[in-house]
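Title: Comparing notes on inverse folding

I've been comparing how different people in this forum approach sequence design from structure. To keep things fair, I'm posting one structure and asking everyone to reply with a full sequence. Here's the target:
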């Protein structure tokens, strides 16, 4: 980790939920971590600042790279910027910011969490419960950051204290050792986190989007899912156990309407277990996240209700849905309460230039639209759509996958069909024919066939939630010799297959060259 990141460890920033600056100028000098961490309120503010660092995950580099690299998504063919469409062609190297931003984002999270965990225990406060929660939040966020880093880079430096961060030349730590630390953090966090938060903490700070016990359980299920498949450790029983804790908690459930899960008016709904919150009140409490999907045909100027129109479904993915699946419904314009939008006009009456027939595509195809803002795009730079990181639906599908790998195929299909049953409800009160229950139309019930069904269901259910690339990567390792990653991209994504970049070493992102320039002790991933 570079010295720059060591320095950022002592800088606290505005929280994502609108707190005032956490560090103010001292008459005798600038506030330091030693003078700042004095009260319970200081600790609470510093904890909230960790969430602010996590907001980098919804930025263009971090979000669009995983989306475009997968076989589910492609870049708009009119995009002129090679740096923007590059991930669609697997075009990156160690100097590319697109794959290096995960390092910057997650070590910022880790640095802030380490400060809270180093300084927090000694703070005296009458609000013991909030202090306990704060330390648990920091443990979760540090663990979550390390889990992300290992998913994209494998071995990375494991730095658990500010003193370790001060080492200018840390070396990479084996994944198993990192994951052991992640498990410790998550289990301790799970024990201390609340099942739900009150509307405000004991300092009066709103708690929308704060970490809960369910988030820690989800992260543990996710960790063991990754280890069992990508690392082939066969810890499916642990993945199953933690996913089932979420399912049986009584706190979380599926919304009747799939699309309502993402609508700003339903913030804090029972399905969203872990999100990056965006209030949309100012540019400091929103993101450009939704612009990746808003059609460029609607214009990009402020107030025109348009977007960058960057991410489209590949033809393979668009045609993979079962006919009538609510999750593929497409409306015409900015008012469409649908998962996709075709043609139509923006809120500012900006329309594509050609005939607006109901089923015409945009100039370059349909656009994902499940992240529709509450103002329909009237102020494009203000986003109030929360970014989903863990949903209850994922607990169900992790449990289904784990049960299938444990040989309990009938149980796996039962839980898989819970997701399909919700999709058949459409807006919540419909009775659609599709997607039908798996196994009722002659589908094979062997383990491999059910695995195929679960992975396809994950693609439909988590469409454009930045999960598909990692699913391709981990299944490729789970099935040696199958070339699952390679064949999926070759057959489903023409831009990737024609790029000349389809080499298996790209399943791992390169260690950023900027980090290796200041720390020669960091080795590079093979192939880069």
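Reply #1:
Here's my take.
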């Amino acid at each position: 980790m570079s010295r720059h990141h060591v320095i950022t460890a002592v800088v606290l920033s505005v929280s994502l939920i609108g707190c005032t600056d956490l560090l103010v100028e001292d008459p005798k000098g600038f506030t330091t971590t030693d003078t700042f961490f004095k009260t319970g309120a200081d600790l609470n503010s510093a904890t909230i600042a960790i969430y602010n660092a996590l907001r980098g995950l919804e930025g263009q580099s971090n979000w669009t790279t995983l989306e475009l690299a997968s076989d589910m998504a492609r870049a708009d063919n009119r995009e002129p910027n090679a740096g923007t469409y590059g991930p669609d062609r697997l075009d990156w190297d160690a100097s590319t910011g697109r794959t290096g931003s995960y390092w910057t984002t997650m070590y910022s999270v880790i640095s802030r969490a380490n400060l809270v965990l180093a300084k927090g225990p000694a703070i005296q406060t009458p609000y013991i419960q909030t202090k306990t929660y704060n330390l648990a939040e920091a443990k979760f966020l540090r663990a979550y950051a390390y889990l992300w880093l290992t998913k994209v880079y494998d071995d990375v430096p494991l730095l658990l204290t500010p003193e370790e961060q001060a080492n200018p030349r840390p070396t990479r730590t084996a994944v198993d050792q990192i994951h052991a630390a992640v498990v410790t953090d998550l289990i301790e966090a799970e024990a201390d986190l609340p099942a739900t938060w009150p509307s405000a903490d004991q300092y009066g700070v709103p708690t929308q989007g704060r970490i809960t016990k369910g988030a820690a359980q989800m992260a543990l299920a996710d960790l063991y899912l990754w280890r069992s498949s990508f690392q082939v450790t066969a810890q499916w029983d642990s993945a199953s156990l933690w996913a089932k804790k979420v399912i049986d908690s009584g706190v979380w459930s599926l919304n009747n309407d799939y699309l309502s899960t993402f609508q700003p008016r339903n913030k804090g709904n029972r399905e969203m277990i872990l999100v990056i919150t965006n209030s949309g009140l100012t540019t400091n409490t929103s993101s450009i996240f939704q612009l990746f999907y808003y059609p460029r045909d609607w214009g990009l100027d402020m107030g025109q209700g348009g977007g960058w129109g960057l991410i489209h479904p590949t033809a393979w993915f668009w045609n993979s849905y079962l006919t009538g699946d609510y999750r593929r419904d497409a409306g015409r314009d900015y008012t469409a309460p649908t998962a996709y939008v075709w043609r139509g006009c923006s809120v500012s009456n900006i329309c594509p230039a050609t005939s607006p027939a109901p089923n015409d595509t945009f100039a370059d195809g349909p656009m994902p639209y499940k992240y529709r803002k509450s103002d329909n795009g009237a102020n494009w730079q203000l986003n109030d759509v929360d970014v989903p990181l863990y949903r209850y639906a994922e607990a169900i599908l992790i449990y289904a996958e784990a049960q299938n790998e444990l040989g309990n195929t009938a149980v796996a299909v039962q839980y898989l069909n819970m997701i399909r049953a919700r999709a058949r409800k459409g807006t919540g009160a419909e009775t659609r024919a599709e997607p039908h229950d798996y196994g009722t139309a002659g589908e094979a019930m062997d383990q491999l066939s059910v695995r195929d069904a679960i992975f396809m269901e994950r693609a439909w259910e988590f469409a454009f939630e930045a999960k598909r690339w990692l699913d391709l990567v981990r299944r490729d390792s789970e099935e040696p010799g199958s070339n699952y990653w390679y064949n999926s991209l070759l057959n489903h994504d023409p831009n990737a297959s024609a790029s000349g970049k389809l080499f298996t070493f790209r399943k791992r992102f390169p260690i950023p060259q900027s980090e290796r320039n200041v720390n020669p002790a960091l080795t590079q991933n093979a192939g880069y």
